[in-house]
Description:
The chain is of the alpha/beta class. The chain has a single domain (5-186), classed as Nucleotidyltransferase, domain 5 (2-Layer Sandwich), CATH 3.30.420.10. It has eight helices and six strands, in the order βββαααβαβααααβ. Strands 3-2-1-4-5-6 form a six-stranded mixed beta sheet, with helices on both faces. A hairpin with a 2-residue loop joins strand 2 and strand 3. Helix 6 (133-139) packs across helix 7 (150-167). The N and C termini lie far apart (39 Å). The model has no long low-confidence stretch (mean pLDDT 96).
Amino acid sequence: MPLDFTAIDFETANGSPASACQVGLARVRDGRVVETAGWLIRPPAGHDTFHPGNMGVHGISPDDVVSAPGWTQQLGALVGFIADDVLVAHSAAFDTRVLRSACEATGAGLNSYRYLCSLQVARKVYDLPSYRLPIAAEAAGHHEFAHHEAIADALACAQIVIDAGRRHEAADVTILARAIGAKVKLTEPVAPQSAAA
């Protein structure tokens, strides 16, 4: 199997993991980025207050998402892009939690996904003073990018895993994880609720 996966990054409106306001995706086939996608999301009701600290990080404001699709409106496109891929994210526990929490907040169902954390990969592969995404991406040969813009972050995250795969001559994500002592984990599925928002 080739090194195929989808890198994902979410930005959130506030401290709630359900408050997704932007997603970025990068599809990797045979160790190369072949497609990217991303869009703004109107956070679910009850999770839609924009905290000044979050806005200061990613620059997205309530006005930016007024006409954006809500979580349930955009979920089909998100799931369609991912298909059956392993998900890769930097601090993957955060991004997979956003994915699940937004579904739980809106009553949407979600299948399980296998995922690998590029932060964990970077810690196993590089010797760095910090493993923040910009520094780890730089070590992977992916230089300056718009950090906290979701597509840019997904691309940076993808490059870390691509570089690690190249260094370890790993044929796929599972083999890479095994080679470096990392783990491909599995998200819990979310059962659909009748009152989807």
